[in-house]
């Protein structure tokens, strides 16, 4: 499904993170005249056009052809291990998460660290990777009132996803632990530690 | 070299285009909130469109020039030197030791360009300051009193702008969601208005639910569950999960970035073709420049006295 998104962009809805990333990679490798940028979302790709140049209809036709060529090709990434100190001052929401899930704190840690999560896409802030999917029993809603300050390295969950705050940021996800891994450094190439397709496993640090 | 004497509420080094190519790593585009005005300021002093300049917010900024330079102020603020107002949208010459003040005007953001551009190194392809993540620009932060900034070399001729800018209602085009929902009519700018976005009050739309997180173009109008629309600006997050029934067109988004809390704003729907035509028009107006002669040192026309 290709929809207009303002006068100089199209939103291509692909239904899965793998296809969204695959179409983004396809366009980056073989550029389409008139397309100036592509931005993958969870299940979609934002395609920005040079509004002064090529007609959107023509780009939409090329995109349709590319869509047909693009298989469900979840990108193959690296395996990343993220050491985490769970609970206490580092994970202020662990107690509430355990209560919401009807589990003990140790069971929450066990299930979070026991899940192999995949980087679905990056968004929200530089280096912030959306990791999915969490097992059903760990799914909790966002905080009713977001925090104005969530420390860098905070490991958090909300709905079906987990994430790590790369910097001190406002945030509404529930923080269950903290890592010292640097998620984003603009001086590095690439600047983000995690990329779509990477698999992530959290490793509890026992103090 | 220039030295910041009074930083005002928020002054930062920005460029017109930010970092559009790094969004797949979560990096927001950023750059000047009113990019059209930033480009105009650069052109007036003979800079490239993407040279670094100062984005000054709201009121009370002062800077001392430690060299002779051509400079220009555009956007919603006014400038003066030695108590004498400086014409907006035209280059002016500044003597060594002069202080230029930038203060309140019709909008919330002013752009001060200096011939040669502010010499900061690019980070991820841009000189813009990412204020939230703390990189780019001048040490990744807003300017403080005492900050000294290098200025590049320039031999360009200064110019004056003779064009015009659309001052009618803000034009919007359909977004990908909620086709039956109209945002046409008058709104009031809410207290939350910054480089990320401008929240609108005055009436509430019906709750539209959530959508899977998707890339957000400049000008997308998100409607969160409280029904108060937010127009997304330069520092918007890369992705968002609220429905977008409409988008502010590219030609008018810079004017939204000039709104302050309490301002009234009117939206009017247009179709895609007039929206593209408006952008072509805005590009043409940007090029409406005529040469100004730089004054010789012994003539009047230099602004500012030695302070």
Explain how this protein is built.
- The complex is a heterodimer of chains A (207) and B (307).
- Chain A is α+β, with helices and mostly antiparallel strands.
- Chain A has 4 helices and 13 strands.
- In chain A, strand 6 (117-122) and strand 7 form a beta hairpin.
- Chain A is elongated, with a radius of gyration of 19 Å.
- Chain A starts with a strand and ends with a strand.
- Chain B is globular, with a radius of gyration of 20 Å.
- Chain A binds chain B through residues 3-9, 11, 24, 36-46, 48, 51-52, 56, 121-130, 166-167, 169, 184, 186-187, 190-192, 196, and chain B through 20-28, 123-124, 130, 132-136, 173-176, 212-217, 219-220, 237-239, 244, 247, 249-250, 272, 275-276, 279-280, 283.
Number of strand elements of chain A: 13
Going by helix content, strand content and strand pairing, the class of chain A is alpha+beta
Principal-axes shape call of chain A:
elongated
CATH class of the largest domain in chain A reads Mainly Beta
List the helices and strands and how they pair.
The complex is a heterodimer of chains A (207) and B (307).
Chain A: E1 2-4, E2 9-13, H1 17-29, E3 35-40, E4 44-49, H2 56-69, E5 79-86, H3 94-101, H4 105-113, E6 117-122, E7 129-132, E8 147-150, E9 154-158, E10 161-164, E11 169-171, E12 174-178, E13 199-204
Parallel strand pairs in A: 5-13
Antiparallel strand pairs in A: 1-2, 2-4, 3-4, 5-12, 6-7, 6-13, 7-10, 8-11, 9-10, 9-12
Chain B: E1 2-6, E2 10-14, H1 35-44, E3 53-57, E4 61-65, E5 69-75, E6 78-81, E7 84-86, E8 92-94, E9 99-103, E10 109-114, E11 148-149, E12 159-161, E13 170-174, E14 185-193, E15 197-201, E16 214-215, E17 220-222, E18 230-232, E19 239-240, E20 246-248, H2 253-256, E21 264-269, H3 272-286, E22 289-291, E23 302-303
